[in-house]
Amino acid sequence: MCCDSQLHELQYTKFCCGNKTYDVYEKYCFQDQEILNLWENKCGGHKYDTREFICCRETLINRTHQDLRCCGSTSFNTNLQNCIDKRVVRKGYRWCPNYGEYDLKTHDCCEGHLKERKGASWRCCGKELIDYAMNKCCAGKKFDKRTQHCCGGKVIEIGDKCCAGQVLDKNTHVCCGKTLFTEEQMLQKRLPYHDRCCPTWPDGGTSYDSVNFVCTLENKVVKKANRQQLCGREEYKPSVDLCCNSKVFKNASRDGMSCCPPSTSIYNPKTHVCCFGVRKKGKRCFRTKYRLRCPRFCSRRKITMRKYCNSFQARKASHEVFKNVRKQMKLLQSSKSCRCVYKKKRRKRLCKAKPCKTFKGLVGILVEERRGYAKLYLRQKMQNNGKHLCRSL
Fold it and tell me: pTM value?
């Protein structure tokens, strides 16, 4: 390894510092000139132990605490103190010139003057402390925000309009708002009854009468009677065409179509429905799903349809379809004297243990009532086949 024309033995943990080498796990190179230990540093040209001292503006101070930091040429404890404008103050306090430290909860320093805070909404405005719930500040001056407002560093009445930092004379001038190419500016009226400005570039803008004229997106003044309706930047006829999210659909309005926001698609309300920007057939976005599963609270054993027909059909068993799964399940849970009925039972393949048989095709839930009666609650899909369950076996 070559360090400033000096050859050294190559080692993967050593680097160059001038014409010497050092181990990065034990030392480091100070300003590419001197090799120091990892716990050493320099203060005013002298080496010191960073574990015992702290250097504040080339002044060594004993490190009495691990949380000691510099504040100007002195040190402070970050757990108990703060450094404000290179001055050490207590936690929660600030520094005010000519007064010293103060409690931020009770006082505030306004341009070097200590003022008592009367509430949470009181803040500085120049040299005074004002209530921002009732007032506002305009270039260091207080004003009532209910009757006045600030315009270019001056307080004006609420009825006056501010334009480009000046009070607008509505009799002789109009205000041209800020655009991509022009700043906000006052423009002299071309005619006394003009009340609006249409910004143009590069001449700044032109005044116009907003009763009979309008400013287009191309910053042109045209008559309202001659103006075409715009969909984005494209002209269209609202009585015939349809504008959906700045996209024109020709003859869609005449054919009875509607927009499907927030997308740019259209749909026919007679045959479809708009579901959050997606067109779907039908009249509803969501369909109720009847999911019936064999509940764990049923204490009786599972049976097949063949066993049900042989044992319970003769007991005047009745059928009922689940119309509200959650409601019906709560009623069944209170009885707990139920069993699940399946289409058939089958044996698992490659199974040699005792519990090898499984049930397939849940038909419904059977509830045995008093006096020998039984009721079978069927799935929604079994509604039309309830009376012919046992005949098909």
Answer: 0.46
The whole-angstrom separation of Cα 359 and Cα 376 is 17
Q: Residue 322 above 70 pLDDT?
A: no
Q: Where are the beta strands (DSSP E) in 24-127?
A: 27-30, 34-37, 40-43, 46-49, 53-55, 60-62, 68-71, 74-77, 81-84, 87-90, 93-96, 100-103, 107-110, 113-116, 122-125
Q: On the CB side of 186, how many CA atoms lie within 13 Å of its CA?
A: 14
Question: Helix or strand or coil: residue 306?
Answer: helix
Rounded CA gap, 48 and 207, in Å?
75
Q: Is 70 helix (H, G, I), strand (E, B) or coil?
A: strand
Measured CA angle at 169 (ends 163, 170), to 5 deg: 95
List of residues 6+ apart from 1 with CB closer than 8 A: 7, 8, 9, 10, 11, 14, 16, 21
User: Is residue 297 a contact partner of residue 354, using CB atoms and an 8 Å limit?
Assistant: no
CA distance 386 to 322: 12
Q: What is the pLDDT of residues 77-121, one digit of tens each?
A: 999 999 988 899 999 899 998 899 999 899 999 999 999 999 989
Element (H, E) at 14: strand 14-17
DSSP annotation string for 124-155: EETTEEEETTTEEEETTEEEETTTEEEETTEE
Highest average pLDDT, of 128-142, 170-184, 205-219, 298-312, comes from 128-142
Task: Provide, rounded to the nearest whole percent, the portion of the chain with pLDDT above 70.
Answer: 84
CA–CA dist 100, 123 (Å, integer): 19
CA 110 to chain centroid, in Å, comes to: 37
C-alpha 393/C-alpha 390 separation (Å) is 6
**pLDDT over threshold 60, residue 316:** no
Q: What is the dihedral of CA 157, 160, 164, 170, to 10 degrees?
A: -160
Contact 100, 114 (CB under 8 A): no
Which tokens in the block code for residue 220?
């042109």
- Residue 162, burial from CB neighbour count under 10 angstroms (0-12, 13-18, 19+): middle
Cα(130)–Cα(142) distance, integer angstroms = 7
